[in-house]
Amino acid sequence: MVPIFFVYFSLVSIVAGVFTVALRSPVHCGLALLTLLLHVAGLFVLLNAEFLFAVQIIVYAGAILVLYLFVLMLLNLKSDERYLHSKYVVMLFAAIAICGELVLLMMQSPFSGSKGDAPAEAVLKEGASYAVGIKMFSEYLLAFEIVGVFLLGAIIGAIVLAKTPVNGETEKGAVR
Amino acid sequence: MAVPLSAYIVVSAVLFTTGLIGVLIRRNFIIVLMSVEIMLNAANINLVAFSHYLESMAGQIIALFIIAIAAGEAAVGLAIIIVVFRGKISTNVDEMNLLKW
């Protein structure tokens, strides 16, 4: 049963990723991205990561994607005739070079290593959220706090950047 | 029959490549940001797959942190897009090539 679900989730997420990059209208790209995020969440379930599944759906599909769609609605972008970068041939060569290096590195990596302390049975006994919570609030507490401060900085930065300039401030405003 | 680890890695590599090509060749700034999200998701698949197969919880924790960083990146990036658009500059990445003038 698991291989069937794996093939379904991975195929749909790859196709949705290609659509996100290839479609012309930004709203269609956003919807393809939504499909991709939901199917990646399905892959997380197959990997015994139920907590990440919930976080992926709530944070990515529920918050980040809605943010993208709001900005798309606010900006009212016209879809141009030409949707590729003006120097896209050069960029494509750079992309092919990086992908070649990626494949090369994957061919020579061993894909194994020392096993950790959380086998699947132990995780399944208490549940994935329990395991994540215990680990996060003991070993990774400092990183957790730093991420909190980072998010506060990102919120303040976004508000300061997107604030509507007051009249008279526009001449010396940020852009023009 | 279990799914091998290399299958997950192939999926994540293909997704990462798609996102990379999107970042490099698309013209619209918003689509470029969406492609960055695809790349971050590919990295997340990789981390969670290794976390499952190597029986360690660290991969899932780092994947959670990546999701938080992605949220911050999306908020700041979209705020920058709004500022640029308000200045009557187009949101195409090959036309906004000057900083302040």
Secondary structure: elements and pairs:
The complex is a heterodimer of chains A (176) and B (101).
Chain A: H1 2-22, H2 26-46, H3 50-75, H4 88-107, H5 120-126, H6 128-136, H7 141-162
Helix pairs in contact in A: 1-2, 2-3
Chain B: H1 5-25, H2 29-53, H3 58-86
Helix pairs in contact in B: 1-2, 2-3
CATH homologous group name of one domain in chain A: NADH-ubiquinone/plastoquinone oxidoreductase chain 6, subunit NuoJ
Number of DSSP strands of chain A? 0
Radius of gyration of chain B: 17 Å
| Fraction of residues in H or I helices of chain A | over 70%
- Count of discrete alpha- or pi-helical segments spanning 4 or more residues of chain B: 3
Report the structural category of chain B. mainly alpha
Number of helices of chain A: 7
The major pleated sheet of chain A works out as: none
Sheet-strand content of chain A, in percent, reads under 5%
End-to-end CA span of chain B:
62 Å
Largest sheet entry of chain B: none
Q: What can you tell me about this protein's structure?
A:
The complex is a heterodimer of chains A (176) and B (101). Chain A has 176 residues and is mainly α. Among the domains of chain A are: 1-77, NADH-ubiquinone/plastoquinone oxidoreductase chain 6, subunit NuoJ (Four Helix Bundle (Hemerythrin (Met), subunit A), Up-down Bundle), CATH 1.20.120.1200; 123-164. Helices cover 72% and strands 0% of the residues of chain A. Chain A is built from seven helices and no strands. Chain A has helices at 2-22, 26-46, 50-75, 88-107, 120-126, 128-136, 141-162. The longest helix of chain A has 26 residues, at 50-75. The model of chain A has no long low-confidence stretch (mean pLDDT 85). Chain B has a domain at 28-92. Helices cover 74% and strands 0% of the residues of chain B. Chain B has three helices and no strands. Chain B is elongated and about 55 Å long. At the A-B interface, helix 1, helix 2, helix 3, helix 4 and helix 6 of A face helix 1, helix 2 and helix 3 of B.
